[in-house]
Amino acid sequence: MDWTRIDLGGELFEGPTNSYLIQGDSTVLIDTGVASEDSIAALEVGLAENHTSVNEIDAILLTHWHPDHAGYAGVLQRRAGASVYAHPRDARRVTATEGPLAAGRSDRRQALRKWGVPAEVRMGLESFFEDFSFTFGPPPEIESVTHGTVLSLGTLDFEVVHLPGHTAGHVGYFFEENGTNAFVGDTLLGEYTPNIGGADVRVEKPLDNYLQSLETIAHSGVQQALVGHREILEDPIQRIESIQTHHRNRSERVVSMIESDGPLDCWSVAKRLFGDLRGIHALHGTGEAFAHLQHLETGGILRSDITAERTYRYHHESKSPTVDSIFEQRNTETMWCYIYNMELRVIEKTDEELRIEIAGEDHTFMNVIKGALLETDGVVAATYDMNPEQSGGQVEPILSIQTDSNVDPLDALGDASRSVQITVNDFTSAFEAAHWPTPITGEMIRPR
Ligand SMILES: [Zn+2]
User: Are strands 302-306 and 264-265 parallel, antiparallel or unpaired?
Assistant: First the structure.
């Protein structure tokens, strides 16, 4: 695959931003930079140096919704007639008519209050975001891609891999060329550790999600990581290990802080970690503290209570596990997947059988996924058990799948979950395209 890194410059975000140009019988751009004059000029120069121009772009693949990656997508789409792709969770931000930063205001307000950030700091942050609204041009129209989607653009194939953490809908675009390589956006960066918790306050369990995303990249055996800022990473696995160690050590610091000075809220922990926090750092620093506190709470090391001001305060659990135990490498047999609030755990896996725990789900969901499995090629049987505690101390629902010898049950589950997703997406699109306001009872809902 013939790709070129275009350095768009800029120091506002995580350092100079990269856009990648891929030329084959389709011309593809990964991320666009902000909608500022300097960045646009740098992009145009980069395209010209590669004997192409804005008008030639067929497709724009967005790694995530932040302005330094998606800010110029709408204008580019209009100029080039290009298709723009993103994960639905981030597409919702990019396409918001009031602008992505304004669209996040109420989520931010809620999070900052929960984290104990003082009112004057919260107000300063909102005026900071207003000053930054220039970074986004008009919104593009987006075609959704989700985990597992293969985008075939001309002779180019990209596999979409969901990498939540830095943002809720962050994706990587993986491709094969002398091994696996990937455009990873801001999931990996060479110089900084990507912000989690504050960079997108919608991410539930930000550190859990992010650590899982790192492992997803590591397990794919990626050789070259084409990152969102600065130089590409020639040894991504080593970088992943150093980021994991960094977070493990930071969690350790947070635990000793709570032990000696607790209970503390996120803001107090953030100030102890990072010192004075102004502007965007008030959001990013406090979000990062939250990500660690939340991870430690999930791991049983801390617990929280809520004050009258609706702020979370964290306490140390007296007989808690070690920090190391919650940073242990997960292996595939006992892997916990943290996708949003859903936790999955493989209990048993052979070539033709899978038993998987789906924590917190009810009959409705289990029935839907079971129904989809029974429609999936190669599935011989699919059942679920809602009250498995009788069969061995298990309290969460368990899905059991049996396949014929040609189909891996994990692949079958992947196919079934995608078919559910397609049905739900179709329903959402049909619903949103339908007449509005609400039609009169009995009237057909049909596309505009
Ligand atoms: Zn970035």
Answer: unpaired
Q: CATH number of the domain at 241-326, please?
A: 1.10.10.10
Interval between CA 90 and ligand 1 midpoint (Å): 14
Residues 20, 30 contacting (CB under 8 angstroms): yes
Looking at the domain 341-433, which fold is it?
Gyrase A; domain 2 (3.30.1360)
- What one-letter code names the amino acid at 380? V
Instruction: Encode the chain (448 residues) as per-residue pLDDT tens digits.
Output: 789 999 999 877 788 999 999 998 899 999 999 999 999 999 999 999 999 999 999 999 999 999 999 999 999 999 999 999 999 999 999 999 888 988 899 899 999 999 999 999 999 998 888 888 889 999 999 999 988 889 999 888 999 999 999 999 999 999 998 889 999 999 999 988 999 999 999 998 999 999 999 999 998 889 999 999 999 999 999 999 999 999 999 999 999 999 999 899 999 999 999 999 988 899 999 999 999 999 999 889 999 999 988 899 999 988 888 898 888 755 433 333 333 345 677 788 888 999 888 877 788 889 999 999 999 999 999 999 887 665 555 667 899 999 998 888 988 998 898 888 888 877 776 776 665 545 455 555 444 3
Which element (helix H / strand E) includes 315? strand 312-316
Q: Count CA atoms within 13 Å of residue 295 on its CB side.
A: 32
How far does residue 28's CA lie from ligand 1's centre (Å)?
19
Token pair for 427: 């329903």
User: Which residue matches tokens 């960045």?
Assistant: 39
**CA of residue 229 to ligand 1 center, whole Å:** 7
Task: State the pTM of this model.
Answer: 0.76
Residues with Cβ within 8 Å of 118's Cβ and at least 6 positions away in sequence, in order, are: 267
- Decide: 213 and 196 in contact? Cβ < 8 Å: no
* 79 Cα to the center of ligand 1, angstroms: 23
C-alpha closest to that of 280 among 67, 97, 9: 67
Block residue for tokens 């599935």 = 379
Task: Find the 250 Cα to ligand 1 centroid distance in Å.
Answer: 22
Pair of tokens at residue 409: 């049950």
Distance of CA 60 to the CA centre of its chain: 18
* Cα(425)–Cα(437) distance, integer angstroms: 21
The most distant pair of C-alpha atoms in the chain lies apart, rounded to whole Å, by: 68
Pick the CATH number of 3-231 from 1.10.560.10, 3.60.15.10, 3.40.50.410, 3.30.700.20: 3.60.15.10
Domain with CATH 3.30.1360.10 in the chain: 341-433
